[in-house]
Amino acid sequence: MDNVTVFKAQKWAFSFIAEHQKETSAAELLLQGQMNWSTTEMLVHYQDVLSQEQWALFKANVIKYCQGWPAQYLLGKANFFGLELKVTEDTLIPRQETEELVEWILADHKNPELTVLDIGTGTGAIGLSLKTERPTWQVTLSDISPKALAIAKENQARLNVTTTLVESDLLTNIVGTFDVIVSNPPYIATDEADLMDESVLKHEPKTALFAPDNGLYLYKQLAKQLTGHLRPHATLYLEIGFKQAKAVTEIFAQEFPHATVQVKQDITGHDRMVKVSF
Ligand SMILES: C[S@@+](CC[C@H](N)C(=O)[O-])C[C@H]1O[C@@H](n2cnc3c(N)ncnc32)[C@H](O)[C@@H]1O
Q: Annotated binding residue at 143?
């Protein structure tokens, strides 16, 4: 096609994606994301002719999307809690469910003087959202993956905030005590891989997804390592798999008999978050 306008490009992408039985909304998302346009800007530019490079890149991305690449990896960015974060295949694409964990923490904590630790930060999604919303909090971002941590560092620079970044297997390299500890650790049982979306399995990092012991391994390890890192009245927030509420509650109730463990449902009614109040 010659002289491809934004309108024509989107029309082509829409029918190509529909033919491949994928989400047709990706047509708009991929073009908007590539051009860095808002929905309104897209409408303003509807009759503009794309350059050959722009059209070639868009076509290549649409084709890759239909082959199973997540749109966020193609664009190199994802939206989370109103922030635009860099993502690569070294980081999990932050999910909407996790935004609810951030909301829960913000609703519970108005004190401007808190120390916060985000374990398994990936892109920095949770910790950087908290830091952006509560700039006076002292936030530490940690991950076992140096590659993920490098992306979190880039994201903090893009957002113009300052946190402490620590490469650590859970709490092993973490020094200090915290008012709030939050983690969305890998929690998918290895034998659940068969039930998962192929594009997730093929492109997202396995270390961000899977954990041994029916997905409970990191919760158990974390429970054992927490003592010595908790400030008085500290709270721990965890994302969990929707069938893990009972098991995770038991892990923390056993390790900390005086703590209160609360399970919270996400917007779709599934048990997806746990809070431990010490
Ligand atoms: C499910 S992803 C969550 C990423 C990010 N917090 C989010 O919510 O989008 C889990 C993250 O935990 C990290 N991770 C896995 N095992 C870890 C460990 N033992 N200690 C610290 N981080 C770990 C992974 O590298 C990955 O970045």
A: yes
Give the Å distance between the CA of 143 and the centre of ligand 1: 6
Residue of 98, 116, 126, 144 to mutate, ligand 1, most atoms within 8 A of C-beta: 144
Q: Is the ipTM of this complex over 0.95?
A: yes
According to CATH, the topology of domain 77-277 is Rossmann fold (3.40.50)
pLDDT digits (tens, 9 = 90+) for 175-212: 999 999 999 999 999 888 888 888 898 899 999 999 99
Q: How many CB atoms lie within 10 A of CB 3?
A: 8
Asked if residue 123 lies in contact with residue 80, where contact means CB atoms within 8 angstroms, the answer is yes
Q: How far apart are CA 40 and CA 162, in angstroms?
A: 32
Boundaries of every domain in the chain: 6-67, 77-277
What residues are paired with 115 via a beta bridge?
138
Which amino acid is it at 56?
A
User: Does the beta carbon of 169 sit less than 6 angstroms from any atom of ligand 1?
Assistant: yes
